[in-house]
Amino acid sequence: MEAAAIVVGILLLVVAAFQVALAFGAPWGDHAYGGRAETANGRLSTRYRMMSAAAIPILLLAAWIVLARAGLFAGAGDWVNVAVWVVFGYLVLNTVANVASTSKVERYGLGFVSAIAALGTLIVALS
Questions:
Q1: Mapping DSSP to helix (H, G, I), strand (E, B) and coil, where does residue 84 land?
Q2: pLDDT of 27 higher than 90
Q3: Calpha distance 109→107 (Å, rounded)
């Protein structure tokens, strides 16, 4: 269970880093938001950059929840037993959205990452 949680934590940190890059104007906007986001030279519009910035703490919290459920943080409380299922649901929905993307990078790359993260989260939740 700990190994699965660590893998999920790393994957969510990578996705959070991707969102940081998007929020700061990296030219990868065509590979986010279903490939349908407003971009200029590959950079997201201000609205989408703010959405990427908002996603960062959510992803970090999700990583923390999975790691806490695996017992890697002391004193997390019983609420993580429910919260890990919320994270799992979020990752399943995220996987579906990624697979439906018009961007091949999002469909195959991020879709794979979110699917592995969802599977790892399920392993942690069931343990």
A1: helix
A2: yes
A3: 6
Burial of 77 (0-12, 13-18, 19+ CB in 10 A): exposed
Rounded to an integer, what distance in angstroms lies between the CA atom of residue 123 and that of residue 117?
A: 10
For the stretch 22-60, what's the b/e string if a residue is b when 16 or more beta carbons lie within 10 angstroms of its beta carbon? Answer: bbeebebbbbbbebebebeeebbeeebbebbeebbeebe
Give CA–CA dist 52/66, Å, rounded.
21
Q: Would strands 39-40 and 43-44 be described as parallel, antiparallel, or unpaired? A: antiparallel
User: Looking at residue 106, what DSSP letter applies?
Assistant: I
Structure tokens belonging to residue 43: 């950079």
State how far the alpha carbon of 51 is from the alpha carbons of 4, 8, 123, in Å: 28, 22, 29
Q: pTM (2 decimals)?
A: 0.92
